[in-house]
């Protein structure tokens, strides 16, 4: 059993950087903490690269089976005071997974409704966008360079489990991917746009949302099939990007639900 | 002209606490920074209690008229290095308003659609909720004890001007206010709730949203006329509170717009 008791241990220092949302430059790993996230990982992806457990947490009921399942070289006990520093949650049991950032392969053709984000900078917004997309029933998210890291602790906290319900493609070249689309690309913009509520959204589309201050980049916007705007009061300039996405994604969900109910009624 | 050059000046220390979102216990003042917020205040409320300007910002075109309009005892020049510490914005001109927190009187009867928040803790969520409410055309917000401070720098940043489009009632006793309602009280909950999209929302209502983890408190929920849920995928447990509010408020806006268009068409 590997046991770390020094704060100068290089592995420990690397985990601490991950936990604090400041990974090393080429570090593509993710830090997961606590029962909820660790179980979500186990269910959707399997065992972690490394299981790190604080001394006192080793005796927890739910930890035993995971500990037993991990190979010897992939499990580490941490002295409690070091584990407390690593923990980003107050009073949480010190159980951590270190895992490789999922890097799914983009499909040859995109045929399912999904979320595209262009340089969304705030990790809280990004996590909320993923959570909203998952709640709306989408299954894939594509994030351009310049987006906040989807797997940072902050974005994970805002995501509330959405990371495990979605296939997340980071560093996606959205302009290039636009050529793989078999469904419309819908972007929200205030300029030369149709009103959301007059748009027929029953078929799937790609929803593209842009940077908090600048919106969707011009070259990407030029590739959009639909330019959509949410009819809002002029009391404020715009909606927060995650709020705008919630309005659009759930308007589509509404139209799809209404259509499904009508189809069912017609059959009866 | 008053000129402050010492970081030990008690006024300066009080402003710094306000700027950093940690006001003294009985300090009911608000710190506003920059051209956009200061102008918004001027337009909606008038002159500030104190105008604070960094030495270098004193010569800015837009500052001159405000400086001239403020009484002598209510304007202060700050040495540039102190102003830089006070500033929460990178490279922004050092122009600050210190103002009294608006404390509007609640009406005897509540007849207009408005936003009620029960213990929404995160200042970012709170600001986004206000922004969404203003964008949806609401004009009043009532915030219970236990909500984040609406006028903290963080909530102001997320609000993006909504604070000046809304009448914000902080420390509101929502249970007591429920007895002043002439319109339905609508709360979102997952328990024994009607689906949002089957609800007739053409008439105004009060929208009540609750704490990020716990939702609306039971005693308040018991006072709700409508219990509403957003039909979402089970991939995540729930929506972020600000996302849920965006969906509800804009579904109401959609129904009202559709009704207005139909009424107009019928008249023609």
Give your account of this protein's structure.
Two copies of one chain form a homodimer. Chain A is α/β, with parallel strands linked by helices and 268 residues long. Chain A has two domains: 2-100, 60s Ribosomal Protein L30, Chain: A; 114-267, SPOUT methyltransferase, trefoil knot domain (Alpha/beta knot), CATH 3.40.1280. Helix content of chain A is 34%, strand content 19%. Chain A has nine helices and twelve strands. Chain A has helices at residues 10-19, 34-44, 63-69, 80-86, 123-135, 153-159, 174-177, 218-221, 241-267, and strands at 2-4, 29-33, 50-54, 75-78, 95-100, 114-118, 140-143, 167-169, 185-188, 194-195, 206-210, 226-229. In chain A, the strands form two sheets. In chain A, strands 8-7-6-11-9-12-10 form a seven-stranded parallel beta sheet, covered by helices on one side. Chain A has a five-stranded mixed beta sheet with strand order 1-4-3-5-2, sandwiched between helices. Chain A is elongated, with a radius of gyration of 21 Å. At the A-B interface, α5 and α9 of A face α5 and α9 of B.
Class of the largest domain in chain A in CATH? Alpha Beta
Number of DSSP-assigned strands of chain A: 12
* CATH arch. level architecture of the largest domain in chain A: 3-Layer(aba) Sandwich
Distance between the termini of chain A: 64 Å
Low-confidence stretches of chain A: none
Most extensive chain-chain interface: A-B, 37 and 37 residues
Spell the H/E element sequence of chain A.
Answer: EHEHEHEHEEHEHEHEEEHEH
Beta content of chain A comes to: 15-25%
Number of domains of chain A: 2
CATH topology of the largest domain in chain A: Alpha/beta knot
The radius of gyration over CA of chain A amounts to: 21 Å
- Look at the helices and sheets of chain A and give the structural class: alpha/beta
Please estimate the helix content of chain A: 25-40%
Indicate the multimeric state.
Answer: homodimer
